[in-house]
Design goal:
about 130 residues, alpha/beta, Rossmann fold, 5 strands, about 20% strand, globular
Length: about 130
């Protein structure tokens, strides 16, 4: 069981947010969703999360820029939250690019929801 771990989903697609929420809620994760990187940083100022699912291509602030900002936070707990990229690989990022930005893992779109769940569990059970 998840012990009600808190997952922040940063994704500008309502369809992906809803599908992701349904999969994770079934496992009793507590889900919060936002639409861009700036909203992620705003949420982190007021709430604690155990993991972030981060779309790479978002308006206002993309996932790479947002992850770098998270890693630069002064609060060591918040700056070390596992961040998993969600991407259609639009800009052809490599795993090395993701690691350099501070991302812990990535999932390719279209999402495989079994893989999503196993990846979330892997990072929450470390």
């Amino acid at each position: 069981m998840s012990d009600n771990k808190k997952v922040l989903v940063a994704e500008d697609s309502s369809v992906i947010i809803n599908l992701t929420k349904n999969v994770l809620l079934f496992e009793n994760y507590h889900i919060t969703a936002v639409k861009n990187g700036k909203q992620v940083l705003d949420k982190l100022m007021t709430d604690d999360f155990d993991l972030i699912l981060m779309d790479i291509n978002m308006p206002t602030m993309d996932g790479i820029e947002c992850t770098k900002a998270i890693r630069a936070l002064k609060d060591p707990k918040k700056s070390s939250i596992p961040v998993i990229a969600i991407t259609g690989n639009y800009k052809n990022y490599t795993m090395e690019d993701f690691k350099n930005a501070g991302l812990d893992d990535y999932l390719q779109k279209p999402l495989d929801y079994d893989l999503l769940l196993s990846t979330v569990k892997k990072h929450l059970n470390k």
